[in-house]
Amino acid sequence: MSLNPIRLIARLDIKSNSVVKGINLEGIRKVGDPKALAKKYYNEGIDEIIYMDVVASLYGRNSIKEVIKEAASEIFVPLTVGGGIRNLNDIREVLKSGADKVAINTEAIKNPFFIKEAAEAVGSQAIVISIEAKKNNNSWEVYYNNGRERSGKDVIKWALEAQNLGAGELLITSIDHEGLKKGMDLDLLNELRKDIAIPIIFSGGIGSAQDVLEVVPKVDAIAIASVLHYNLIGIKQIKQNLNNHNITIR
Length: 250
Known about the structure:
This protein is an alpha/beta fold. It has eleven helices and twelve strands.
């Protein structure tokens, strides 16, 4: 169970310098400008921001360093950047651009030892392993390339392996719940918490302030996208609801 203050994180999925959003990681459409949205969420009190280049691995390119440089000059909360991280040089370049952490998915699946190598090079606190989870029968399978590819790996086993290899944090995205705004995958979270001791950022499905309350006891952070992008609920409203239930927030 989480003993630390809960962090609220705005998740910005980036494609061609625009923030995009879809449902179940499909049918993405533009919803805004990365700089403008990041500044808006920062001013409204967000605790952290995650930038994910959703096509970086697909096209074999590096992450969105220019976007991060702009953000880091005006936004003073921790920034995590993912997409196209393939080696230590990519990690160092992203951190040099102003990010505090990097999120790795595809390369870690292809080469798990990269997690250990990265953690030893820059510290576990800077390494977030991003896991896209989709339920198949009675278990969850790891996907990558923004939900386009199946890995054959079991989510729970992979999360545990990533933890043991030195990951400092896990970003778990439920593909089944992502974008639907009907609540998060509590079954997946419960299974993860049986074995995972490192911080978990949970993503996919938030549709109301009540949805946040339901996962709070077992997460360290919640990544939110749709409801913020479409102005369905605000950061202050979510935080007020947490305060009303005596839940400590960052």
